[in-house]
Amino acid sequence: MHDVAKAAGVSTSTVSRVINNGRYIRPETRLVVERAIAELGFHRNEVARTLRPGQTANTIALVIEDPGNPFWSAITRGAEETARRNQHMLVVGSTGQDFHRERDLLRDLVSRRVDGLLVVPTAHDHRDLHTELSRRAPMVFIDRVPAGVPADSVVLDNVGGARRAVEYLLTTGHRRIGYIGGDPAVSTGSARLAGYRSALADAGLSYDPGLVSLGHHTVEAATTVAMSLLNRADPADAIFADNNRICVGVLHGTDRHDRDIAVAGFDDVELVDLLPRSVALITYDAVEIGRRAAELLFARIDGGTDEYKQLVMPTELVLRGRFGLRRPL
């Protein structure tokens, strides 16, 4: 507030009255103060006004993509367990893959003086936003890492996991393996596509862009694309889905086809054990991802100044389906 007052050439009490929509402020003075606020990126700290000097909110925040997805629910559970062990509350918000919503949510959380942030970033340049917010609260990224941002992170072995899934399809005799994925601008998507291409290259197969479809985020879209790949003149004989929601859509699409189509997917899929068929899935401990990310965050909250770490969590290829069969491959 002092910086705003200095830039506007007014007193801090005048700045306070403008922020709080006080009366008896001349329009030209209000305009000068508001311009200074915008130029300096000032945000009022809502919680700080209710806390004593040196007091914190004993709260951390988790910003995820979609609370309805079991993957993010499991991560939330792990982060909450760690927060409770550290006598903190966890608050959760979601972005719906919208950067502007993510930006506004993070700024609001920081203004309420959360002690730290666990963030699943959207597909956007985060360098300026991270520079702005990391001065006020430490930040740990989960599942994906924005390019050029120095921060702790917990990610999956996305390249290795996707490669193992496609290798399994290849060893079972399939050669025209389709790939249906989400946003290629997100690091997880690009890494899984790289694993797919690596497996094909190791098998001496060329990459066919006609078998690859990206940018899908719903079960319905994945269903439509799967049916399209299977109805081509030179159709796919197997499909790899790069996340759980897409895998559900692929299973719907293959179920409507008259041929037996092999399916592999990244992420576990609810109720897949009830299917009268086998599905190869790349699985991992999502709860542990949340725990480990929160542990890294509390290390920073406690004053840790070590070099930034990236934890790469292992994945496992399992065969599921056929009324409850579940075994590693």
Automatic annotation (TrEMBL):
Domain of life the protein comes from: Bacteria
Stored InterPro entries: HTH_LacI, Lambda_DNA-bd_dom_sf, Peripla_BP/Lac1_sug-bd_dom, Peripla_BP_I
Sequence ranges assigned to domain HTH lacI-type in this UniProt record: 1-53
UniProtKB keywords: DNA-binding, Transcription, Transcription regulation
Any one GO MF annotation of this record: DNA-binding transcription factor activity
A Pfam family matched in the record: Peripla_BP_1
Signal peptide range in chain numbering: none
SMART domains: HTH_LACI
Protein name: LacI family transcriptional regulator
Species assigned in the record: Actinoplanes digitatis
